[in-house]
Amino acid sequence: MNFKLKKYACATLAALALISAPVFAEEAVPQVTIFKNVNIFDGTSTKLIKGKDVLIEGNLIKVIGVDLDVKGATVIDGGGRTITPGLHDMHTHVALFRNVTNSRNNLDMAYTGALAAARLEGMLMNGFTTVMDVGGPAKFAQKLVDEGIYKGPRIYPSEALITQTSGHGDFRNPNEVHPNLSGSSTHPWDSQFSCIADGETEIRRCVRQNLRRGATQVKIMAGGGVSSQFDPLHSKQSSPAETRAAVEAAESWGTFVAAHAYTDKAVKEAVENGVKYILHAPMISEDTAELMADKNVYMGATLAPVFSVPIESLKTMLSPTSFKKFLQVYETYPNAMRAAIKEGVTMVFGSDILSTPEKTIQMDDSANLEFLQLVKYMSNAEALISATGNANKLIGEMGPNNPYADGPTGVIKEGAYADLLLVDGDPIADIKVMTTPDETFDVIMKDGVIYKNEL
After folding, report:
1. Which ranges carry the Amidohydrolase-related domain (predicted)?
2. What CATH code is carried by the domain that includes residue 443?
3. What is the number of domains present in the chain?
């Protein structure tokens, strides 16, 4: 090889080496935000921690202290405002609308999904950085938010309601053939919204199908409900063996079962057979409340849908059958709440908003009114804890199925997710500041990202 060719070959090899050499991109520096001069409601204590700074690095709370300073940080002067964890609504139905049977039969599935997605940003702007959907498709909404396509809260989906034939989740027309019978027509509702199951084998199938679809917990119907037409409120649904089958199938994935239950008998039997989260429970006795507390079972009372809407308005919204059932709940709920509080049942916040397609986004703005009902039975701080720290405990029951595992939500502490609200006022002294998010939530942050800043 002559000198010129050798020189060219060496240069070529050197160039190829440079091209093939790994390129180490400069590591992105996490965004740092410091909230200065704030009073902290930490999600677990009944008193504020006053005069602190909170340093956010990336999507986590890094340091809580005094006179914190980091070069290049975004600084927000709280001016003595209260910083709280983002709120948790642990009883939502993102894609369900009233009248449920009419929605099942008349709403286009694409319309239903689009309307559900349209609700997400409003939930976040009302201060709910986390929601648990306890029936109906929600995994799709979770993906839309997590992928940044829509603004919205973290979503824990249960996917399809699991109901017995003629149970609270069976919203078929009277003459419609059972979906599990040979030769019946298929309906998308029967796999995505409500899974009708009779017997232990079918229950296991529905639970496992939901888990396959991405459910982080599952929900069964343990008794009658108000919005359905063909199940009396007193009816006891899901036999002990069926409930145990659901719990066993869920526990095999390390997660838990929630149950819709109204009557004392339905609640007691669900708790005895392993259900971890009872929804509603407006008719429980002190003995059943004591059992719930002893077994560390959570209660998600939904009071605002019962007591915040005028009875005459509900009479026009509900069918005669449903309105009759509603009146039974209206009369018994106060006693059930007093029993639950007396026996020390762990309460979690839930709104259970179910409205017509035309009014659902407007109705979502009423979710915060649940606080006004809760404080009839507990302190302001305890009501806030139900929407923050207690919700965090319930999320912990889903174990490794939690897709948001970098830190806890619902608390203000080092290492927790930076999901928080800066509130103009002291909610421990005046819970009403939590019911007017447009006026009193000056900053809304989720996952370290500021979605609202009025300062």
Report:
1. 82-448
2. 2.30.40.10
3. 2
Residue of 322, 341, 343 whose CA lies nearest to 333: 341
* Residue of 210, 278, 211 lying closest to 238 (CA atoms): 278
Mean of the per-residue pLDDT values for the chain? 91
Tokens read off for 375: 């404080």
pLDDT of residue 182: 65
Same-domain status, 96 and 72: no
The CATH number of residue 164's host domain is 3.20.20.140
Residues 257 and 324 in one domain: yes
First-residue to last-residue Cα distance in the chain: 73
Beta bridge partners of residue 423, listed in sequence order:
82, 441
Helix, strand, or coil here: 439?
Answer: helix
Residue 21 lies in a domain: no
Q: Is the CB of residue 192 less than 8 Å from the CB of residue 137? A: yes
**pLDDT at residue 298, rounded to an integer:** 98
In degrees, rounded to 5, the angle at the alpha carbon of residue 328 between the alpha carbons of residues 327 and 332 is 115
Residue type, 211: L
In a domain, 14, yes or no: no
Q: Which two tokens stand for residue 181?
A: 């019978």
Residues 81 and 153 in one domain: no
Position 27 confidence tier, pLDDT thresholds 50, 70, 90: low
User: Is there a single domain that holds both residue 99 and residue 192?
Assistant: yes
Are both 111 and 248 inside the same structural domain?
yes
Residues 121 and 211 both lie in one domain: yes
Q: CA 226 → CA 138, 330, 333, 446, distances in Å?
A: 22, 11, 14, 34
> Does the pLDDT at position 18 exceed 70?
no
Residue 420 belongs to domain spanning:
32-85+410-453
Amino acid making up residue 79: G
251: tokens are: 């526990």
Asked if pLDDT for residue 280 goes beyond 90, the answer is yes
Q: Which two tokens stand for residue 39?
A: 């009073």
Separation of alpha carbons 95 and 150, rounded Å: 15
Res. 26: pLDDT tops 60: no
**Whether the Cβ atoms of residue 249 and residue 293 lie closer than 8 Å to each other:** no
d(CA 184, CA 452): 50
Could you read off the pLDDT of 336-378 as tens digits, one per residue?
Answer: 999 999 999 999 999 999 888 999 999 999 999 999 999 999 9
Q: pTM higher than 0.70, yes or no?
A: yes
Q: What is the pLDDT of residue 201?
A: 97
Helix (H, G, I), strand (E, B) or coil at 388: coil
Q: DSSP character for 43?
A: S
User: Does 412 or 191 have the greater pLDDT score?
Assistant: 412
Give the closest residue to 223 by CA, choosing from 182, 166, 287.
166
Residue 247 in any domain: the answer is: yes
Cα separation of 408 and 220, whole Å? 26
